[in-house]
Amino acid sequence: MTINNYLKKERLFLLSSILALFYLVSCQKQPNVTFGSTYVGDNNGANIVVVDTSTINLFTVVVDSTATAGTGFLQVGKLADPYLGTITSRAFLQVAPPSSRSLGIYDTYDSLGLILLFKKSNPFYGDSTQTQTLVVSQVDSLYQLASYQNGFNSQSSLPLAPTALGSTQVIIAPNIPYTSQGSADTVKIKLDDNLGKDLFTKIYNNSDTLNQSAIWLQWFHGLCIAPGPGSHGALYGFQDSATMRIYYHKAGVYSVPAYFDFNITNRSYQFNNITVDRSTSPLQRLIKPIIGLNPQTPPATPSASTVNAAYVQTATGLNVKLTFPYLNDIAKRPDYLSVLRAQLIVRPDLSSFNTTWTLPPGLEIYITDLNNLIGPPLPGSAGVQNGSLVMDFLHPLNMVYTYDVTNFVKAQITNTDPTAKQNGLMLSMPSGSSSFARAVLADATYPVNQRVTLNVYYISLYPHN
């Protein structure tokens, strides 16, 4: 009898507690929220509600420079991107004299050239069927960092001699690889013979200019490889194993061809200078950083100012920030208990990509705040998330980047700080990427199945019809 009485009291207490809880919840006022909802459940218990119409604001964030020194690639070319403007990249480098060199009295000079290597895995972007003009010039000042510089970057540049050393026109098929010069993965550029003969004479005389590094760098500052007039269509990443080569014939019973190589040196000083003309592109109203102001908050331009899209091309300093200004309204719902999971689906503008204007294979996602800086990565089950893009040009609507943003939403949904609405997520190319691939992301003005969306699944305490 005692046991039965105890069980009855326990059941009564539990029932009373549940009724009290439902009474308290039912007394909460339903806020006026503009979310659309889909309910998953059978109305007999707790439901899972999905909110899929959260407001998402898109911004293009631009930084004044990007890291282009010591990337392993000499990025050279020019292309006119219909979305991002005209992009030009030049490669600067230094070369060192050959460590072993000697000439006989009857050895004869032939020519001087620059050799560039392109492997199948090298980055390239644009229309590779176009003829490229590559121009080689000599750096016309001491190749060194200014006193206030920590390193070279995309905005760095050095003055060049008024007359180029040489040029070539070539078509590069990067996926084979093959060039119209018929030299497989090699591009050859003939250079000025006056320089070649001068170097040949210095080798013959065992000149101190070649023996002492400091004297050499004072005399031969460096080289710049740039796209020439009329060059357009693509940007290429050549290996940073570029070689300036003297060809000559070694005298003997039979004349034997030979060469001396001036190989690239000081790879941390090899950098790519990238310039962009956006004056006639959808980004002509992009808010730019103030030149010379350091530090500064990278400006964020709303998508409404850039033809209702935001743009990622980290090589030219473009990343996308997403904010969710009304996210915490979900927590004000009377049926809200807790977030179960949240998924962000990022859809590129369908007209912005094809087999030439390819999408980045991955966009990493980071936390950001009112300072618009890339913060810590938003991890997933397998580490840093890159969106897991699947290429499917037959079904372009399936080409989306998908992210698990549960932890971010859980933290943001109850954040009442006055600056919380400026917190958000940043999409960027993986750190160290040398690719010029870009993504144009559609904002809320696009059809639902083409815009960036956030799906928040939360546990509903009671049926809400």
Strand and helix layout:
Layout: H1 2-26, E1 37-40, E2 47-51, E3 57-62, E4 73-81, E5 85-96, E6 108-117, E7 124-126, E8 132-138, E9 166-170, E10 172-173, E11 178-179, E12 186-191, H2 193-204, H3 208-211, H4 213-219, E13 223-227, E14 234-239, E15 243-250, E16 256-265, E17 271-277, E18 300-302, E19 309-312, E20 318-323, E21 336-346, E22 364-368, E23 379-380, E24 383-384, E25 401-404, H5 406-413, E26 424-428, E27 439-442, E28 453-460
Antiparallel strand pairs: 1-2, 2-28, 3-18, 3-20, 4-5, 4-14, 5-13, 5-16, 5-17, 6-12, 6-15, 7-14, 8-9, 8-13, 10-11, 15-16, 19-27, 20-26, 21-25, 21-28, 22-26, 23-24
Number of helices: 5
Q: What coarse outline follows from CA principal-axis ratios?
A: elongated
- Average the pLDDT over all residues and give the rounded result: 88
Poorly predicted parts: 1-37, 39-43
Quick one: biggest sheet?
A: 12 strands, antiparallel
Structure write-up:
By secondary structure, the chain is mainly β. It has two domains: 31-62 and 288-460, no CATH class; 73-276. It has five helices and 28 strands. It has helices at residues 2-26, 193-204, 208-211, 213-219, 406-413; strands at 37-40, 47-51, 57-62, 73-81, 85-96, 108-117, 124-126, 132-138, 166-170, 172-173, 178-179, 186-191, 223-227, 234-239, 243-250, 256-265, 271-277, 300-302, 309-312, 318-323, 336-346, 364-368, 379-380, 383-384, 401-404, 424-428, 439-442, 453-460. The strands form six sheets. Strands 4, 5, 6, 7, 8, 9, 12, 13, 14, 15, 16 and 17 form a twelve-stranded antiparallel β-sheet that branches. A hairpin with a 3-residue loop joins β4 (73-81) and β5.
